[in-house]
Design goal:
Blueprint (H helix, E strand, L loop, with lengths): L1 E5 L3 H13 L3 E5 L2 H10 L4 E5 L7 H10 L6 E6 L3 H10 L3 E5 L3 H15 L6 E4 L2 E4 L4 E4 L2 E2 L4 H12 L4 E2 L1 H8 L8 H15 L4 E4 L3 E4 L4
Parallel strand pairs: 1-2, 1-3, 3-4, 4-5
Antiparallel strand pairs: 6-7, 7-8, 8-9, 10-12, 11-12
Helix pairs in contact: 2-3, 3-4, 6-8
InterPro entries: CheY-like_superfamily, OmpR/PhoB-type_DNA-bd, Sig_transdc_resp-reg_C-effctor, Sig_transdc_resp-reg_receiver, WalR-like, WH-like_DNA-bd_sf
Protein name: DNA-binding response regulator
GO molecular function, one term: transcription cis-regulatory region binding
Amino acid sequence: MRILIVEDDENLRRQLIEALTGSGYVVDQAADGEDGHFLGDTESYDAVVLDVGLPKMDGISVLERWRREGRDMPVLLLTARDRWSDKVAGIDAGADDYVAKPFHMEEVLARVRALIRRAAGHASSEIHCGPLRLDTKSSKASLDGTPLKLTSHEYRLLSYLMHHQGELVSRTELIEHMYDQDFDRDSNTIEVFIGRLRRKIGVDLIETVRGLGYRMQHGG
Protein backbone atom coordinates (compact mmCIF):
# COMPACT_ATOMS: atom_id res chain seq x y z
CA MET A 1 0.00 0.00 0.00
CA ARG A 2 1.39 3.37 -1.05
CA ILE A 3 0.69 6.70 0.65
CA LEU A 4 1.42 10.30 -0.36
CA ILE A 5 2.06 12.88 2.37
CA VAL A 6 1.80 16.55 1.41
CA GLU A 7 2.91 18.63 4.42
CA ASP A 8 5.18 21.70 4.57
CA ASP A 9 6.10 21.36 8.26
CA GLU A 10 9.32 19.35 8.03
CA ASN A 11 9.13 17.95 11.56
CA LEU A 12 5.50 16.84 11.22
CA ARG A 13 6.17 15.40 7.76
CA ARG A 14 9.04 13.32 9.17
CA GLN A 15 6.83 12.06 12.03
CA LEU A 16 4.08 11.08 9.59
CA ILE A 17 6.57 9.28 7.33
CA GLU A 18 8.03 7.36 10.28
CA ALA A 19 4.59 6.36 11.58
CA LEU A 20 3.24 5.24 8.20
CA THR A 21 6.46 3.46 7.19
CA GLY A 22 6.45 1.70 10.55
CA SER A 23 2.92 0.48 9.80
CA GLY A 24 4.06 -1.17 6.56
CA TYR A 25 3.19 1.51 4.00
CA VAL A 26 5.39 2.84 1.23
CA VAL A 27 5.47 6.63 1.54
CA ASP A 28 6.14 9.42 -0.96
CA GLN A 29 6.32 13.01 0.20
CA ALA A 30 5.93 16.60 -0.98
CA ALA A 31 6.54 19.85 0.89
CA ASP A 32 4.31 22.17 -1.14
CA GLY A 33 1.07 22.11 -3.10
CA GLU A 34 2.60 22.15 -6.57
CA ASP A 35 4.83 19.12 -5.96
CA GLY A 36 1.99 17.37 -4.14
CA HIS A 37 -0.43 17.95 -6.99
CA PHE A 38 2.10 16.67 -9.53
CA LEU A 39 2.76 13.44 -7.60
CA GLY A 40 -0.94 12.81 -7.04
CA ASP A 41 -1.60 13.42 -10.71
CA THR A 42 1.19 11.19 -12.07
CA GLU A 43 1.59 8.40 -9.50
CA SER A 44 -0.78 5.81 -8.02
CA TYR A 45 -1.67 6.04 -4.33
CA ASP A 46 -3.93 4.09 -2.00
CA ALA A 47 -4.45 7.19 0.15
CA VAL A 48 -3.19 10.78 0.52
CA VAL A 49 -2.56 12.77 3.70
CA LEU A 50 -2.94 16.40 2.61
CA ASP A 51 -2.35 19.53 4.68
CA VAL A 52 -4.67 22.46 3.96
CA GLY A 53 -2.13 25.24 4.60
CA LEU A 54 0.52 24.62 1.94
CA PRO A 55 2.86 27.00 0.09
CA LYS A 56 2.59 27.51 -3.70
CA MET A 57 -0.90 25.93 -3.85
CA ASP A 58 -3.17 25.37 -0.84
CA GLY A 59 -4.49 21.91 -0.05
CA ILE A 60 -8.10 22.68 -0.99
CA SER A 61 -6.99 23.82 -4.47
CA VAL A 62 -4.81 20.71 -4.86
CA LEU A 63 -7.76 18.49 -3.94
CA GLU A 64 -10.18 20.32 -6.24
CA ARG A 65 -7.80 19.91 -9.18
CA TRP A 66 -7.30 16.19 -8.49
CA ARG A 67 -11.05 15.59 -8.38
CA ARG A 68 -11.64 17.62 -11.56
CA GLU A 69 -8.96 15.54 -13.26
CA GLY A 70 -10.68 12.31 -12.17
CA ARG A 71 -8.21 11.29 -9.44
CA ASP A 72 -10.35 9.39 -6.94
CA MET A 73 -7.84 8.14 -4.32
CA PRO A 74 -9.00 8.61 -0.70
CA VAL A 75 -7.76 11.90 0.80
CA LEU A 76 -7.35 12.67 4.51
CA LEU A 77 -7.12 16.42 5.14
CA LEU A 78 -5.03 17.92 7.94
CA THR A 79 -6.76 21.12 9.11
CA ALA A 80 -6.08 23.78 11.73
CA ARG A 81 -8.02 23.16 14.97
CA ASP A 82 -10.01 26.41 14.85
CA ARG A 83 -10.71 26.58 11.12
CA TRP A 84 -14.05 24.84 10.79
CA SER A 85 -14.44 26.55 7.40
CA ASP A 86 -11.44 24.54 6.13
CA LYS A 87 -13.23 21.32 7.06
CA VAL A 88 -16.38 22.34 5.21
CA ALA A 89 -14.42 23.51 2.16
CA GLY A 90 -12.35 20.33 2.18
CA ILE A 91 -15.36 18.02 2.26
CA ASP A 92 -17.02 20.06 -0.49
CA ALA A 93 -13.80 19.77 -2.52
CA GLY A 94 -13.87 15.99 -2.27
CA ALA A 95 -12.01 15.08 0.94
CA ASP A 96 -12.93 11.70 2.42
CA ASP A 97 -12.02 12.55 6.01
CA TYR A 98 -10.14 15.13 8.06
CA VAL A 99 -8.07 15.41 11.23
CA ALA A 100 -7.58 18.69 13.11
CA LYS A 101 -4.15 19.69 14.36
CA PRO A 102 -2.70 18.95 16.82
CA PHE A 103 -3.52 15.26 16.56
CA HIS A 104 -2.34 11.91 17.86
CA MET A 105 -0.45 9.94 15.23
CA GLU A 106 -2.51 6.83 16.07
CA GLU A 107 -5.65 8.67 14.96
CA VAL A 108 -4.11 9.49 11.57
CA LEU A 109 -3.02 5.86 11.15
CA ALA A 110 -6.50 4.59 12.07
CA ARG A 111 -8.20 7.00 9.65
CA VAL A 112 -5.80 6.08 6.82
CA ARG A 113 -6.48 2.36 7.42
CA ALA A 114 -10.23 3.02 7.38
CA LEU A 115 -10.06 5.04 4.14
CA ILE A 116 -8.10 2.29 2.37
CA ARG A 117 -10.48 -0.40 3.65
CA ARG A 118 -13.58 1.51 2.62
CA ALA A 119 -12.15 2.26 -0.83
CA ALA A 120 -11.70 -1.50 -1.29
CA GLY A 121 -15.16 -2.30 0.12
CA HIS A 122 -14.12 -3.70 3.51
CA ALA A 123 -15.80 -2.58 6.71
CA SER A 124 -13.73 -4.50 9.28
CA SER A 125 -10.10 -4.00 10.25
CA GLU A 126 -9.63 -7.74 9.61
CA ILE A 127 -9.78 -9.07 6.06
CA HIS A 128 -10.33 -12.79 5.49
CA CYS A 129 -9.60 -14.98 2.50
CA GLY A 130 -10.28 -18.63 3.31
CA PRO A 131 -7.70 -19.66 5.95
CA LEU A 132 -5.85 -16.35 5.55
CA ARG A 133 -6.45 -13.45 7.92
CA LEU A 134 -4.98 -9.97 7.50
CA ASP A 135 -5.10 -7.66 10.52
CA THR A 136 -4.70 -4.17 9.07
CA LYS A 137 -4.49 -2.68 12.57
CA SER A 138 -1.36 -4.61 13.57
CA SER A 139 -0.01 -5.10 10.01
CA LYS A 140 0.14 -8.87 10.57
CA ALA A 141 -1.17 -11.90 8.71
CA SER A 142 -1.95 -15.44 9.80
CA LEU A 143 -2.77 -18.75 8.12
CA ASP A 144 -5.14 -21.12 9.95
CA GLY A 145 -4.46 -19.09 13.09
CA THR A 146 -0.67 -19.38 12.81
CA PRO A 147 1.19 -16.07 12.40
CA LEU A 148 2.97 -15.72 9.07
CA LYS A 149 6.55 -14.50 8.99
CA LEU A 150 6.53 -12.05 6.08
CA THR A 151 9.09 -9.54 4.86
CA SER A 152 7.87 -5.96 4.38
CA HIS A 153 7.61 -6.51 0.60
CA GLU A 154 5.69 -9.76 1.05
CA TYR A 155 3.29 -8.11 3.51
CA ARG A 156 2.62 -5.16 1.19
CA LEU A 157 1.98 -7.50 -1.74
CA LEU A 158 -0.34 -9.75 0.27
CA SER A 159 -2.15 -6.74 1.75
CA TYR A 160 -2.82 -5.22 -1.68
CA LEU A 161 -4.08 -8.50 -3.14
CA MET A 162 -6.31 -9.18 -0.13
CA HIS A 163 -7.79 -5.68 -0.22
CA HIS A 164 -8.66 -6.38 -3.87
CA GLN A 165 -9.89 -9.98 -3.62
CA GLY A 166 -11.49 -11.31 -6.77
CA GLU A 167 -10.05 -8.50 -8.91
CA LEU A 168 -7.49 -8.96 -11.65
CA VAL A 169 -4.43 -6.95 -10.60
CA SER A 170 -1.69 -6.31 -13.17
CA ARG A 171 2.00 -6.46 -12.38
CA THR A 172 2.24 -2.76 -13.23
CA GLU A 173 -0.46 -1.94 -10.68
CA LEU A 174 1.32 -3.98 -8.01
CA ILE A 175 4.61 -2.23 -8.71
CA GLU A 176 2.95 1.20 -8.54
CA HIS A 177 1.41 0.43 -5.15
CA MET A 178 4.39 -1.38 -3.58
CA TYR A 179 7.30 0.95 -4.30
CA ASP A 180 7.95 4.68 -3.93
CA GLN A 181 8.79 6.82 -6.96
CA ASP A 182 12.56 6.45 -6.47
CA PHE A 183 12.59 2.65 -6.46
CA ASP A 184 14.07 0.79 -9.44
CA ARG A 185 10.88 -0.87 -10.59
CA ASP A 186 11.49 -4.24 -12.18
CA SER A 187 8.35 -6.24 -12.90
CA ASN A 188 10.28 -9.50 -12.53
CA THR A 189 10.60 -8.87 -8.80
CA ILE A 190 6.83 -9.21 -8.47
CA GLU A 191 7.04 -12.79 -9.74
CA VAL A 192 9.72 -13.52 -7.17
CA PHE A 193 7.59 -12.16 -4.31
CA ILE A 194 4.49 -14.00 -5.58
CA GLY A 195 6.52 -17.21 -5.54
CA ARG A 196 7.70 -16.58 -1.98
CA LEU A 197 4.15 -15.80 -0.83
CA ARG A 198 2.79 -18.99 -2.37
CA ARG A 199 5.37 -21.02 -0.47
CA LYS A 200 4.03 -19.49 2.75
CA ILE A 201 0.27 -19.42 2.11
CA GLY A 202 -0.18 -22.23 -0.43
CA VAL A 203 -0.32 -22.12 -4.22
CA ASP A 204 -4.11 -22.03 -4.63
CA LEU A 205 -5.03 -18.64 -3.16
CA ILE A 206 -3.21 -16.51 -5.75
CA GLU A 207 -4.16 -17.22 -9.35
CA THR A 208 -1.86 -16.25 -12.22
CA VAL A 209 -3.77 -14.90 -15.23
CA ARG A 210 -1.25 -15.39 -18.00
CA GLY A 211 -0.09 -12.17 -19.58
CA LEU A 212 -2.43 -10.06 -17.45
CA GLY A 213 -1.52 -10.37 -13.78
CA TYR A 214 -2.79 -11.99 -10.60
CA ARG A 215 -6.05 -12.54 -8.76
CA MET A 216 -6.51 -13.35 -5.09
CA GLN A 217 -9.28 -15.91 -4.88
CA HIS A 218 -12.41 -15.04 -2.93
CA GLY A 219 -12.36 -17.19 0.16
CA GLY A 220 -14.97 -15.69 2.45
